[in-house]
Amino acid sequence: MKRDLSEGPVLRSVLAFGLPLALAMASQALFNLVDLVLVGRLGVDALAGVHLGSTLNFFPMILGNGISVGAVALVGQALGRKRDREARAEANLSFVLMALAGILLGALGWLIAEPSVRFLEASGQSLVLGTVYLEIMSLGTVTMFGLMHFTGILRAAGNAFWTVTILVGTNALNIVLDILLIFGFEPLGIPAFGVPGAAWATVASRFLGCVLGFWVLARGGSPLAPGLRLPSPWSGSLRKITRIGIFQTIQMLARAALVLSITLIGGALVGPAAHGALSVAIRLDTLVLFAGVGWASAATAMVAQTSAAGNHRRCLQLSRTTAWLAGGLSLAIGLVFFTWSDSIFQFFSEEPSPALMAVGRQYFAYLAFAYPAATASLVLAGALNGAGSSFLPMLLDVLFFGVLLQPAIFVWYWSGAAGGLAVCWFLILIASWLLLLAYFWAFRRPVLQC
Fold first, then answer.
1. Which of 442, 450, 412 is closest to 306 using CA atoms?
2. pTM score, whole prediction
3. pLDDT at site 414
């Protein structure tokens, strides 16, 4: 059920544990792409609506991910110290937090769905479809959080097999349900729900993934079986999870706010064609970035166990090796997107407009080359979180994305947007590489303590 990640050859450990997690997370993004292909058959308004709804639904996911990262760090450290009972109590506390947050954020997302979608310059059918999609996805927030919790605890235990099985199985089921619910299936009497069907397919598959995750952890002999026992005193653990979670949440908000900004500006400058192009481009981004999150999750768990065992040199080796592997893989994928961008957009959208094609082509001409920096910095941030040092990655991401990049983009936009969206993409490219350099600098400083 659990695996000691603090021993063994570094490269072998990273490949054996990190690669399956990266592929599993990439499968989640792959499902998003299949979902996009299916929705794209319903027209540009459907494509834009799903993009708007999924972009907004990403924000509660950030908070859930923050709690999950905090739990992985604490559970992994407890397992590294060979304290299974303590690890189980930390996992139980995380489950309570995730359930409460999922219910509250889901209700809030449902209540503000329509004004949120309208804020992103949506109108007409894209506004209607985006609102319905976001309402359904918000109601399913608790299933999203549950899936993150169970797979996160399995990662903390070093169990890549069941983590991958649950994620891949959930995504495969999502695709099947997508086909059935979007287009209907007359032999079973299932009507065509269209865009709402895509949202219900995701909510249902995540729920079944939660059931499987609970079953895996609850089996006899599992040291992390769910239960009622909480840490004693639980307030100390709550503070630790909250501290790591808040910093991780702020860090990811700084990155996610960038997607919100370019969606807003793209819609204002180009119109629905930009929303359609960004719907495809950002879903393709997630294929790379979700894989990066998988590598980062592996780094968090490996460093958590290894730092608790007191092997600081191995922490650095694990962090750097994982970052190089993640960056190299993302560069290869980025080159594919750049080389065949026209064919990609033609595949995802029936009869794409020249404006949509132009935005998409220009996007990958710049941002495909930001992928290595983006994924490697995610990995190094994950390693710092595993060591319990979550303030520094938050500080770096907020500084480069929130304090420097976002204001620069809006100053350019408010001053007339000279040069078009290409300038926006160029600014993001430069900021991504500067951030990675800052992370490498941080790993040379004593403040790392990993």
1. 450
2. 0.75
3. 92
